[in-house]
Design a protein that fits this description.
- This protein is α+β, with helices and mostly antiparallel strands.
- It has 22 helices and 25 strands.
- It is elongated.
């Protein structure tokens, strides 16, 4: 350098300084354009959301957040303190403008969603600048804006931006966190954003391994600076003090402490340390882990949900694999670990988390995967002027398409339903004062709480649903109704719930409400057999009408005793068989339906199960047998629960018609059974006479008996006729037979039936005086049916032969 003149060195220095300042100015212009594009993308998405934002009160979690935010109250675990505080500030700021709290919270989600889209633009441009800084800025920005708009309009994310929910704010935090990491922002700022995100949604813990791995790969030197690391950790932990909101506001939240009965309060948060930990940790949802089904089924769910976001199930996985391979080839390990590990952790959690709306848990994964494919897309676009032009044109075209979509009617498939209309009809029906309103679905009751505690309507009512607490009396809808009846307050179902009639007497209530009159009264008439299986027994049955008629229907009511836990979705059946055992009619149904299936039946309960059998028009006169059973419908076929049992027999009206007595009868009026069951109305005897006042020995004696049913007999009875010496007890001749030779057995008799029976007994060969004794006994056990005195009746004395 000795030969270089001083002026040359000075010129070179000036040139370098000028180039650096130009680069700084160019970078500043890039940042301004990036921020402006991000804001514009967010605005476009917000305008697209606007016509579809829910107009007001909603059910479920959304209704709960609408209520809790306005009251600065508590929501379900994990508490969401930051979201509720922001919601309280937002709703009270808009209230003077005439915006109701429910609508304000819906719009807050839309604003967070738009901000999240803007954050995705910022993170996407920073990601591409890290991976390929030499790539044209306009290409990087166009690709970032394009994929941010696609993410903002994806099915699941858009659905959450239209209602009061927590997932758009969660996406905003994730986008900001990724942007700060990719921009190499100071660690304390990264710690503060991550700490705030944890005060909103605890699933951000899933991103901790990915963030730590990224920092280790990308900024290991910063991690060794103890002062900087300490500040970052402090700023992660400091926001967690917001969770003190839970014990501070829990006692002040009115819907968490509602009067149930005199001296009883329905307490949903008791302020204990255990309750606080349950709120913060979400331990009440522990049972949902691993409850989603088989692994192949859950992976298929992930593929379907991915397809719903981009319109083709294989497009997103293929793009992700290509992008991951490209980043690995470029040795961008830190970026690949950050986005890939975070997305995988989120997807893995969604796979094992078995809740009904699990699709919302995948939103962070879709955000991360959208960013992951950006460098690959921009690399492909930058290789061709035509593709670059197409990408630049696609951004405004997509923005215009979203703006045009905003002018469509909001009453399309994506518009949430306003719950206010449904509850206006229910309250207008005039539920009784202090009534308890019951649903099987928490989502349907939450709007009532909003109307009560935000707007002050019908505070005397109490809404209950399964799992409102974790106590056994709220385990399922059947238990909830039982606990509601125990309070002595009027109980109403807010909708028809077929299946609950197994356990309760239901009647039409006010308007759409269904009145619960009390526990059901199952029939007590015992069946011929009882035990169906160790877990269940039939203890009673009834058939109506009492007589079968061709072409009509027969209702058979069963009383089930539950003795042990039962399998899910048990079906019961009743079969009608003729005397040859041929199936004539049947009824099969899932007992309890979808509202009260068998897995909810508590041990020890007695249920009333009604079956309706359609009778064929060709039904022949006669006696028929009823049999009952239960089974499970499994993929391999029907699996019986225990054995089929015999209930009893029924008959047609023609079979019940009594035959006219062949002889004039002598009135008797004796009553058998305690309580009275069967009366012997009269009798007649006839035999060949041997003389004017005696009967010929050895001749047949015809005995005609006329029975009347005073009640419905519970079993089969056999008639006996004995000839007994006048001074003795042992019969010398007898005849035993069921009434009408068994073609009209006693177990099908109905009160008022008159049955004529004829028996023939041989007169003895030995002359003498004999008593004619009659009675009834159970065919199976041989036990006689008692009279008021004794168990047999002497009808008359007979003289056999001329013994003078």
């Amino acid at each position: 350098m000795r030969g270089v003149r001083r002026g040359t060195v000075s010129q070179f220095t000036v040139h370098i300084s000028h180039a650096m300042s130009e680069r700084v100015r160019f970078a500043a212009r890039e940042r301004r354009w990036t921020v402006a594009t991000a804001l514009l993308a967010g605005l476009v998405v917000l305008v697209g959301y606007a016509p579809r934002v829910a107009p007001g009160l909603l059910g479920g979690d959304s209704g709960e957040f609408q209520m809790a935010a306005w009251l600065a109250g508590l929501a379900h675990p994990t508490g969401y303190p930051l979201y509720l505080l922001l919601g309280w500030l937002w709703t009270h700021m808009l209230a003077p403008l005439g915006v109701e709290p429910a609508a304000a919270m819906n719009w807050l989600s839309a604003l967070f969603g738009a901000a999240a889209v803007a954050g995705v633009v910022l993170a996407g441009e920073a990601l591409q600048r890290r991976v390929a800084p030499q790539r044209p800025f306009v290409v990087r920005l166009a690709v970032a804006a394009l994929l941010a708009l696609v993410f903002g309009w994806s099915a699941t994310f858009r659905s959450q931006a239209l209602v009061a929910e927590v997932y758009t704010l969660n996406a905003l935090f994730l986008a900001l966190l990724l942007w700060l990491l990719l921009e190499r922002a100071p660690l304390p700022w990264i710690g503060l954003v991550y700490g705030l995100s944890l005060t909103h949604h605890r699933t951000m813990l899933l991103w901790a391994p990915a963030v730590l791995a990224f920092l280790w790969l990308d900024r290991r030197d910063d991690l060794h600076r103890l002062r900087t690391l300490a500040w970052a950790l402090v700023l992660v932990g400091l926001p967690q003090a917001l969770y003190l909101y839970i014990p501070l506001r829990g006692p002040q939240t009115p819907y968490l402490h509602q009067p149930l009965a005199p001296g009883q309060t329905l307490t949903l948060y008791d302020g204990s340390l255990r309750a606080f930990w349950g709120q913060v940790s979400g331990s009440v949802f522990r049972g949902a882990l691993g409850a989603g089904g088989s692994l192949p089924a859950r992976l298929a769910l992930v593929a379907r949900l991915a397809g719903e976001q981009v319109g083709a199930p294989l497009l997103l996985p293929a793009a992700v694999l290509l992008a991951a391979g490209w980043l690995a080839w470029r040795r961008c390990w830190a970026v690949l670990v950050l986005l890939g590990l975070g997305a995988l952790a989120t997807i893995a959690f969604g796979v094992v988390y078995g809740i009904g709306d699990v699709e919302v848990m995948f939103i962070p994964a879709w955000l991360a995967l959208a960013l992951l494919v950006e460098p690959l897309v921009s690399a492909l676009v930058a290789r061709s002027r035509w593709l670059a032009g197409a990408a630049l044109a696609a951004v405004p075209l997509l923005a215009v398409a979203l703006l045009l979509a905003s002018f469509r009617t909001p009453a399309d498939a994506t518009s949430p339903t306003d719950a206010r209309t449904a509850w206006a009809a229910l309250l207008a029906a005039g539920p009784p004062a202090n009534a308890i309103l019951v649903s099987n679905d928490r989502n349907e009751i939450v709007p009532l709480w909003y109307l009560q505690f935000v707007e002050g309507q019908r505070r005397d009512l109490l809404g209950l649903f399964p799992l409102v607490t974790r106590r056994p009396e709220h385990a399922d809808v059947g238990a909830v109704v039982a606990s509601a009846l125990a309070t002595g307050r009027p109980v109403r179902l807010i909708k028809s719930m077929p299946g609950l009639e197994l356990r309760y007497d239901l009647a039409p209530g006010e308007g759409p409400l269904v009145a619960v009159a009390g526990p059901a009264e199952p029939p007590a008439h015992p069946p011929a057999e009882v035990d169906l299986a160790p877990a269940m027994a039939v203890t009673g049955w009834a058939a109506a009408p009492a007589r079968l008629a061709a072409g009509s229907s027969l209702t058979v009511t069963l009383a089930w005793d539950v003795r042990d836990a039962l399998p899910a979705d048990l079906s019961t059946y009743v079969h009608l068989l003729d005397s040859a055992g041929t199936l004539v009619a049947q009824s099969d149904h899932q007992a309890g339906g979808v509202f009260y299936p068998s897995q909810l039946w508590p041990v020890g309960v007695r249920l009333r199960d009604r079956h309706r059998l359609g009778l064929p028009a060709t039904l022949a006169p006669g006696v028929y047998q009823l049999r009952a059973g239960a089974y499970r419908n499994e993929p391999g076929g029907l699996v019986p629960l225990g054995r089929e049992i015999a209930l009893g027999r029924v008959t047609t009206a023609s079979a019940a018609e009594p035959a006219a007595p062949p002889l004039e009868t002598t009135p008797v009026g004796a009553v058998f059974g305690q309580p009275p069951l069967i009366a012997l109305e009269g009798y007649a005897v006839h035999a060949p006479a041997g003389g004017t006042d005696w009967l010929a020995p050895g001749s047949p004696l015809m005995v005609v008996l006329v029975w009347r049913a005073l009640a419905a007999p519970t079993t089969l009875y056999t008639t006996f006729v004995h000839l007994v010496p006048a001074a003795g007890e042992a019969p010398v001749s007898q005849a035993d037979a069921p009434p009408r030779a068994g073609d009209y057995p006693s177990d099908v008799w109905q009160p008022g039936d008159v049955v004529t029976q004829t028996l023939v007994v041989d007169l003895p060969q030995t002359p003498g005086r004999y008593r004619l004794v009659v009675g009834l006994y159970q065919a199976e056990r041989g036990e006689r049916l008692p009279l008021s005195v004794g168990d047999s009746l002497t009808l008359t004395e007979l003289r056999v032969g001329n013994d003078e």
